[in-house]
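Sequence in, structure out. Go.
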Amino acid sequence: MPGVRIVGIGHYSPDNCISNDYLASIVDTSDEWIVKRTGIKTRNLSQGEGSSELGAKAALNALKNSGCSPEEIDLIIVATTTPDSFTPSSACRIQGMLGCINAAAFDISAACSGFLYSLIIANNFLKQGERKKALLIGTEVLSRIVDWSDRNTCILFGDGAGAAVVEFSEEGNGIMETCFGSDGSLGDQSLRAGRFKVVNPICKVDDSVENNYISMDGKAIFKFAVSIIPKIVEELLEKSNLDISDIKYIVPHQANMRIIKDSARRLHVEMDKFFINLDKYGNTSAASIPIALSEMSDQGLLQRGDKIIVAGFGGGLTWGGALIEW
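Output:
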């Protein structure tokens, strides 16, 4: 059955690997404390590279693995909450770096759900014949917006990028089903970053905005995540008339091991059905799912015809999922 397929995947992580022991030297924490509560052991941090640079390097790997040239790409969507600038967009910056001269390029902001949003948007563009080949990138330099004196948040996040080339194909199902949504009523209370004061000649400065760092209500995020991941999986299975036994892997947003374990319990599946790499990378927001897919591909875990579910959630609050035949 014709559909939109991922034909190339790639990722890039900065070389600077930060251990839990290093974090214990700058905040009141320990390796044992972090691993027990999150499952994270290391994360990679940029040494000056921006989101566009990380994204371009991941995109080059995806293009190489797809066999496509930059000129063949006619759509670029970048998901990021840490753009290098308000304008030009990260997508346009990456377009210029890669020489994708025939592409329309734009950014989207959906936090940790961003890559899935880009996949759903591209799926519709390609199915309608509006575009032929899309380059999708999730890229983040979260170290820019982390308060490195806050032990509750600085232990969680890492920098990195993942990318995928997708195209419409007459062979195989590809993206079989998707779902996504948001609930803005919960956003500010749960997770936020980058709030800016309004300053102009006729407006009094809003002194209520304290800083631009990530702040989050961990308990609220946990409660949301462990309810939404099973809902995403169940909705996709219902839409496709498949059973959980038909799915080889569930690839969740890599946020916290406790979230994944609780989701597995609620779905009544073993943990080995979930692909997990958060121990190495931490939470890389929009980059986490494409990085995971790229690692799975590199490790030979994904074979033609395998069915997987990718499921993400993030600030906004937002969520999204896709059932994909590889």
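Check: The chain has eleven helices and 13 strands. The chain has a mean pLDDT of 93.
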